Amino acid sequence: MRGMLLSSLMVVAFSLFPILLAGYGASPDLLWMGCSLALLAVTVCYYVWFLAALQTLSRADIPTTKFQWRVVIPTLLLVAVGLGTLLGVNVFLATPAVYLTALALLLFQSGFAFCLIVFSFLPRAEAGGGRYEKP
User: Fold this and answer.
1) What is the CA radius of gyration of the chain?
2) What is the pLDDT of residues 63-122, one digit of tens each?
3) Continuous H helices in 24-61
4) Which helix (H) or strand (E) holds 9?
5) Could you give the CA distance from residue 97 to residue 32 in angstroms, rounded to a whole number?
6) Is residue 93 left, alpha or beta, with left meaning phi > 0 and alpha meaning psi from -120 to 50?
């Protein structure tokens, strides 16, 4: 839950960051390189924190599902690799489109986490009968 809120706040903050730098008269190349570098640094810190939180959960003997291993983990891994690649490349390209694409990908991750949280509260179907468990 905290991870979803944190990544959502990162999107909002780093959407405003280019406006702030432009207000100080930064050149366009420096603006997008600086924004990309700052977002890359914060994103790396976020994923380090997120992986530490996942390790703590894995030690807590919380049962995992096939869905988590087949869908959730690969999706989050693809988003992390995509973000790192986009932002790393944009440090050299310095284009606003790549930076905004990285922000959109981070927003997708927040929405994906939000959907997982919402769906975790829905009743689950039993394996054999197709009936729903009562919460």
Assistant:
1) 18
2) 666 667 677 778 888 888 888 899 889 888 888 999 999 999 989 888 887 877 777 777
3) 28-59
4) helix 2-23
5) 10
6) alpha
Query: Which residues on adjacent β-strands are paired with residue 132?
Result: 125
The more confident residue out of 46 and 125 is: 46
Domain boundaries along the sequence of the chain: 2-120
Q: How many residues does the chain have?
A: 135
Closest CA to 90 of 82, 81, 100, 98: 98
* 24 φ/ψ angles, rounded to the nearest 5 degrees: -90, 5
- Separation of alpha carbons 109 and 10, rounded Å: 11
pLDDT digits (tens, 9 = 90+) for 16-67: 999 988 899 888 888 999 899 999 999 889 888 877 877 776 676 656 666 6
Q: What tokens appear for 41 in the block?
A: 């640094």
Report how many helices (DSSP H) and strands (DSSP E) the chain contains, helices first.
Answer: 5, 0
Identify residue 73 by its one-letter amino acid code.
I
* Amino acid, res. 7: S
